[in-house]
Amino acid sequence: MGFPDSSLVERPSAAGGSTPDGEGQAPIPVKLVIAGGFGAGKTTLVGAVSEIPPLTTEEEMTVVSEGVDDLTGLERKTTTTVALDFGRITISEQIVLYLFGAPGQDRFWPLWNDLALGAAGAVVLVDTRKLEDGFASIDFFERRDIPFVVAVNVFDDAYHYEPEELREALTIPPEVPVVMCDARERERAKETLLTLVRRAIEKIPST
Ligand SMILES: Nc1nc2c(ncn2[C@@H]2O[C@H](COP(=O)(O)OP(=O)(O)O)[C@@H](O)[C@H]2O)c(=O)[nH]1
Ligand SMILES: [Mg+2]
């Protein structure tokens, strides 16, 4: 059987097919959102794990965004995502993850509702130098009851927090995993996605 169409339409369930182990079936597409503040490492993470060349709409930051996008502490950042990042990673014969990196700037908030539609879960990337930027994303997924994990992207020049300190500072509920991550490292980024998938599966009501 060929690869499923790219419509990302949720299919009933893996167990609905004829072979219980999913053998011979096309993998189930699972949509995940990569969220977080501006410069938290979303584009980097999608690029690090994607098995297809990530589709990204990075644009050179122009003078137009000067004074609009807050570059404090991000002096080396010269590109910005104007729409979204898109990547794909196959985690097993049964599951293929489609990653949608959300644009971090406040002015793109209206897009987030569309991005979250049909999402099985979200990674909220947090830059510890700009902790407060994580609140809006955490709040967004909490309100919609979308499973999420908080991934702390540890930048070289950032103060090192313990996960529990961050949980308290960001008032992250106990059931939400907090993981340390380096968005540039494929294996760490992949482990973050697997933590999210496990969390999303846990949240599926057992009937
Ligand atoms: N030191 C360090 N730099 C990172 C890490 N993740 C991303 N960066 C850098 O931080 C900048 C912002 O990352 P980017 O992915 O564009 O952020 P986005 O706005 O969330 O998409 C880029 O220059 C990255 O190379 C990290 O884990 N450690
Ligand atoms: Mg980006």
TrEMBL record:
The UniProt record lists the keyword Amino-acid biosynthesis: no
Short name of any one Pfam family annotated for the protein: ATP_bind_1
Region of interest (Disordered), ranges: 1-26
InterPro entries, A to Z: Gliding_Motility_GTPase, Gpn, P-loop_NTPase
Keywords: GTP-binding, Hydrolase, Nucleotide-binding, Receptor
Any one GO molecular-function label of the UniProt entry: hydrolase activity
CDD domains documented for this protein: Ras_like_GTPase
Keyword check for GTP-binding: yes
Family per record: Belongs to the GPN-loop GTPase family.
Protein name: Conserved hypothetical ATP binding protein
